[in-house]
Amino acid sequence: MSDGNQPRQERRPDRAALVIAAALAVVAIVIAWSTANMGGAATYARIGPTTFPYVIAFGLFVLAICTAYVALRGDFPQREEQNFPPMLWIVGGLAAQMLLLKTVGFSIATGLLFAATARGFGKGPLWMTVPLGIVLAFAIWFVFAKGLQLALPAGPLERLF
């Protein structure tokens, strides 16, 4: 029990959580709208190809309402400060992979992504993680391209095999 002499703390709405709630609601509306306007959907059964997108949209909308409710009450726990350099390493690695995939091939581009992600998590120097990532990515490329006959972007390293 609390005594009436303590000052009452005023809870403030959590703006970030309200933005997340709004984004969830927008995604739910877009999914429902695109499902409703989907052409060629079979209407011969009650449960068809449009059922699952509606279930997902409904679930996202419920999550949006719950998130907004908790945000308005101010019940979200305090968030930690963001550490941007690791995020920049990972995003930079993804950007490098997307930009280099067609020119240098799967193994080298994915090896660079591996090294940048390892660096973002504070593991290993780049001179060690880049070659390790290229070797691992080449093994993955070999299994998928040669073993499963899937088409992955091939660069100079892959063309040797």
UniProtKB/TrEMBL annotation:
It holds the Pfam family TctB. Keywords: Membrane, Transmembrane, Transmembrane helix. It comes from the Bacteria. Residues 19-153 form the DUF1468 domain. The chain crosses the membrane at residues 16-34, 54-72, 84-114, 126-144. This is Putative tricarboxylic transport membrane protein. It comes from Mesorhizobium alhagi CCNWXJ12-2.
